[in-house]
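Customer escalation, tier 2.

The customer says the design service returned an amino acid string that "doesn't look like it belongs to this structure." They asked us to rerun it and document both sides in this ticket. The original structure tokens are below, unchanged.
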């Protein structure tokens, strides 16, 4: 047997194993949210404890609810299980009833357990997930309701949050869309007014909306977001993204967020391929690979997992956050697809092994979602919640679905 034939067989076996693991992990994740987070009275509980008990009186965030809508819609598109479409519509109906601001447009940041607004702030970051979920629901099932919800949110952001002078989107607004300086994405207003994190989720949501809404203005905006990701937010020296920017796109910090960087790498090529044009796609591919290379420096050589943050001097945060691992798997696998270089498949599998060994929790033989931090014991306080405002099925569920779809295309 020739060396390249052996390599091909080994790759096929790896891909088959990865596909099987992704399918089982996805089923476990989705079943978890159906069994433990679903509120039969409407929407989903705002938190679920380590013990698998829902916190029925917990506040509910738009981030968790919109991500649930997206995840279940995407799962229905992929697997056609009617339970998933039911869950996606369950989330959508709750969002329409309780989060959408029927007077000023957009959506509230947080409501209480009874659906009453408790934080009426408007964050483009959160509203982007409604666009993402509504558009995916339309893509998966032809839902006119989902499409209208996505379009309404898109139009609100274009009217109120867009920086018409310099491009991009500002961070935070009052209920009636007056701009505020504070943002959870930017720890200090002196660091800037525009955040990488928001633009990451703008590009994924607008790209998905473009797939179901052939609107010239929307298409133009997706092209502008691709330009922002490749020219304004990208540090051309280090090939990491700049986390905080001023109105006119001046950088104020060189913090490297490995999870956001590797996420941005694959979202960039996804957007370019959806937008179309061979020249643009070919321009974005090497950028995505170089970002993956830069993020590989953040891999823990002993465990295979990806650390949280660094700067030009080295690591500054050794947390092993669950969502960072999810994005690392997709980002390194995307680099493997773009280059056919087995080193990226090896990086992918190293992170997958870390997830299996440290993050995906099967305590007492029962799947208990993922730990928030794989570097801490399951009983640590930072791992108390299986679900909360920031802990949902979006990152890890999407990781599984991306792998399933990408492997299927490679094997076709």
């Amino acid at each position: 047997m020739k060396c390249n034939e052996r390599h091909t067989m080994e790759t096929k076996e790896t891909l088959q194993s990865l596909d099987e693991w992704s399918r089982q992990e996805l089923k476990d994740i989705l079943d978890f949210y159906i069994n433990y987070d679903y509120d039969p009275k409407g929407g989903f509980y705002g938190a679920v404890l380590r013990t698998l008990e829902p916190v029925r009186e917990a506040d509910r965030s738009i981030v968790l609810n919109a991500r649930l809508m997206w995840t279940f819609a995407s799962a229905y598109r992929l697997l056609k299980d009617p339970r998933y479409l039911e869950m996606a519509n369950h989330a959508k109906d709750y969002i329409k009833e309780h989060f959408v601001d029927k007077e000023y447009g957009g959506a509230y940041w947080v409501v209480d357990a009874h659906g009453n607004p408790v934080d009426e702030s408007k964050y483009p970051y959160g509203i982007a997930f409604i666009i993402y979920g509504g558009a995916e629901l339309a893509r998966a099932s032809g839902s006119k309701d989902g499409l209208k919800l996505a379009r309404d949110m898109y139009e609100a952001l274009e009217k109120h949050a867009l920086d018409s002078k310099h491009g991009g989107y500002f961070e935070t607004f009052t209920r009636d869309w007056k701009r505020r300086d504070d943002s959870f994405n930017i720890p200090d207003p002196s660091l800037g007014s525009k955040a990488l994190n928001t633009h990451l989720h703008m590009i994924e949501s607008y790209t998905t909306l473009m797939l179901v809404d052939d609107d010239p203005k929307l298409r133009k905006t997706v092209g502008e977001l691709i330009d922002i990701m490749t020219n304004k937010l990208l540090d051309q020296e280090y090939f990491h993204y700049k986390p905080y920017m001023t109105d006119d796109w001046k950088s104020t910090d060189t913090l490297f967020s490995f999870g956001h960087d590797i996420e941005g790498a694959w979202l960039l090529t996804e957007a370019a391929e959806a937008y179309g044009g061979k020249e643009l796609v070919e321009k974005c591919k090497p950028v995505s690979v170089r970002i993956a290379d830069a993020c590989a420096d953040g891999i823990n050589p002993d465990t295979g997992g990806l650390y949280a943050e660094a700067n030009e001097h080295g690591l500054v945060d050794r947390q092993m956050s669950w969502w960072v691992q999810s994005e690392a798997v997709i980002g390194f696998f995307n680099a493997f697809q773009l280059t056919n270089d087995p080193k990226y498949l090896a990086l992918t599998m190293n992170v997958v092994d870390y997830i299996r060994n440290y993050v995906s929790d099967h305590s007492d033989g029962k799947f208990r979602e993922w730990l928030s931090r794989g570097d801490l014991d399951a009983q640590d306080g930072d791992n108390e919640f299986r679900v909360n405002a920031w802990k949902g099925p979006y990152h890890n569920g999407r990781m599984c679905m991306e792998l399933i779809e990408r492997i299927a295309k490679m094997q076709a």
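Tier 2 assessment: The sequence is consistent with the input. Residues 148 and 171 are 24 Å apart (CA to CA). The chain has one domain: 10-411. Sent an explanation to the customer and offered a walkthrough call.
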